[in-house]
């Protein structure tokens, strides 16, 4: 037996029981977070969003998508032409009217084609939920969206459109001329009404060939089920004051009042 004394190993300091429990709980929480978040990170968790306002035209949405995706200008417009989108046959591949206004997630793997497809599928789902299957209804809704001063007027605007079509009257909607000319204004000149474009509803009878923007839910519902009424004319004299009538002479008086109010604002 050696006379050298044995080294006594003393145990190190131990965490109090409460501390050990907190550590275990923390590790459990981290494990759960890892299980939940890792698959999302691997799929490409949305980093940002793109909001499409009601009434925007396809060209505006394409430009916004290019910025959101950090792509050269024109990239989304090109994708719209070469991507087979789930559109009705009447659309002839043109997604105008079917890029539904909403907020869309943008992730690292989002492409112009996938984003446009998501928008069109969202439109089809919303239209189906409201019982709307007609391309004509979407087209009318796009005019309603552009012409109505407020949601409360949308049903009456839709009824005016239906009534004018039923009476074989030209629609004479300034919004369709604005679309033809690529602009947005409240003032339409006589020269504008002579524009040789199928979107000029002063010159050509019936509806324009495609929607003129991407309408929201209120405009779509208004176009799908407009209220009863004999209105044939309307003019927004001032914000919140849109006047509807079936009397042409009364309409002319309303237009004069609009022109006077517009002159006073200049």
TrEMBL record:
GO terms for molecular function: lytic endotransglycosylase activity. It is an enzyme of class 4 (lyase). It is found in: Cell membrane. The record marks 147 as: Important for catalytic activity. The chain crosses the membrane at residues 21-42. Its EC number is 4.2.2.29. It catalyses: a peptidoglycan chain = a peptidoglycan chain with N-acetyl-1,6-anhydromuramyl-[peptide] at the reducing end + a peptidoglycan chain with N-acetylglucosamine at the non-reducing end. Keywords: Cell membrane, Cell wall biogenesis/degradation, Lyase, Membrane, Transmembrane, Transmembrane helix. The keyword Protein biosynthesis does not apply. Belongs to the transglycosylase MltG family. This is Endolytic murein transglycosylase. The gene is mltG.
